[in-house]
Design brief:
12 helices, 15 strands
Length: about 425
């Protein structure tokens, strides 16, 4: 039976975490925002916490504040580990950017096996990760093997599986690295199975969880994950450019040596010794002074996630993507769209991807004419997200209805020139 608006309203009434929408700053109530997988909304508590820090800590305490701030990257890491990542205390740092953390951990893994000369990743991996791997391979004279998982007609577009990886594995593998959740298609990769398979060749896997944290159950400890990185500005709602995180399983912390040896990683930091002696715990992976302002943004958002709980957040993300796919079948498939995301809710995250030959101009038309923000990605794909803490089922419904309207009425044909039009 086709879903309708009455059923959508019932879903909103039954939504256990609907009240958390009120905890976020919403400037324009008429805006339909379906791009929380790119940048999450601003928590109201972040505004309060940052103002309080500026006046009552930085402003009043000046340099004396470092007595309390010095370990905040670890403290925020523990909050993230407990409430989002399913990791143990002392395994996560909130610091630097995803790119820096990715470079650090990948380089450390390669250094662990200097006789091995092959890196494995996939063609659909996030561009920055692929570019960094190219640079590492060029610097150290390694072979970068890129698995082709971008075939448009594939049954599970972009998804990585053990069967897909197995033919590429051998005892020359120095590093394997993939996304937990494919940034474009939203396909969720089986972390535990892939990590276990790679480990059979005495190799470690580095996971990029940027598009997964806050929309899926990660359970790093349960899934026996080795290493991971990720950002905090998407579903974790910590703001543009907020500090990223890195995860290193405790059993690996003494073994791995990152290339950028900053003074925060020094065993006896304030002795200012002549030689670098790495701290043997998670602090050994921190480069320099943390962004305290950024960490407070992370902390404020994690407090909300803690109250809502990851199980409820994931449940809503799965229901939201179910709804999107139902409306795709009813409304969008007949208009020439193609679903690029797995239908199985256990094989996807909080967003779906739909392909259309006019996707780019449709995305621009939605922003400029309908006050609807979705996300465009090459080739010809629109990403639509259910950000569980800030998106209602009614908002999702209205956004999908607008996509249908713009496509049916060919409003997108009014977009003649992309210069100056919002497309990011």
């Amino acid at each position: 039976m086709p879903i309708d608006l009455a059923q959508i309203k019932i879903l909103d009434q039954l939504d256990n975490i609907s009240t958390f929408i009120k905890e976020f700053y919403i400037h324009d109530s008429s805006l339909i925002y379906l791009d929380g997988n790119s940048l999450g909304r601003l928590p109201k508590e972040t505004i309060t916490d940052i103002n309080d820090f500026m006046l009552n800590e930085w402003g009043d305490q000046l340099v004396n504040g470092w007595e309390n701030w010095i370990n905040e990257a670890q403290m925020s890491g523990d909050l993230l580990a407990e409430n989002v990542l399913g990791a143990k205390k002392g395994e996560v740092l909130v610091c630097d950017t995803t790119s820096v953390n990715f470079y650090q951990l990948c380089s450390a893994v390669i250094k662990l096996n200097p006789d091995r000369k092959t890196i494995i990743t996939d063609a659909a991996n996030f561009p920055t990760d692929r570019y960094i791997l190219e640079g590492i391979a060029d610097t150290f004279g390694l072979k970068l093997v890129i698995i082709d998982n971008e075939e448009i007609g594939a049954n599970e577009y972009e998804r990585i599986t053990p069967d897909l990886i197995r033919p590429y594995l051998n005892n020359d593998i120095a590093l394997a690295t993939f996304q937990v959740l494919q940034y474009r298609s939203g396909a969720l990769n089986p972390m535990r199975e892939i990590t276990s398979l790679i480990r059979e060749y005495d190799c470690l896997t580095v996971w990029d969880a940027s598009h997964a944290a806050g929309s899926v159950n990660l359970d790093f400890a349960k899934n026996n994950i080795d290493l991971a990185v990720g950002c905090t500005y998407k579903y974790l709602c910590s703001g543009p450019g907020s500090p990223a995180y890195l995860y290193v399983k405790k059993s690996l912390q003494k073994k791995l040596q990152v290339p950028i040896q900053g003074w925060f990683a020094q065993k006896d930091q304030f002795e200012m010794g002549p030689k670098f002696i790495k701290s043997e715990d998670i602090r050994g992976f921190q480069i320099a002074s943390p962004s305290i302002l950024g960490l407070r943004c992370v902390n404020a958002a994690i407090k909300i996630i803690n109250k809502a709980s990851i199980p409820e957040i994931v449940k809503k993300a799965q229901k939201g993507t179910d709804i999107m796919i139902e409306f795709y079948d009813q409304w969008l498939k007949p208009l020439g769209y193609k679903l690029m995301t797995p239908r199985d809710k256990h094989k996807r995250g909080g967003h779906i991807s739909i392909m259309h030959e006019n996707a780019r101009s449709i995305s621009v038309a939605l922003r400029n004419f309908e006050n609807v923000i979705v996300d465009y990605r090459e080739p010809s794909q629109i990403r639509i997200a259910m950000s569980p803490l800030t998106t209602s089922f009614s908002e999702l419904y209205e956004g999908l209805k607008k996509i249908r309207y713009v496509t049916e009425n060919k409003t997108f044909e009014k977009i003649k020139d992309f210069d100056g039009k919002k497309i990011y």
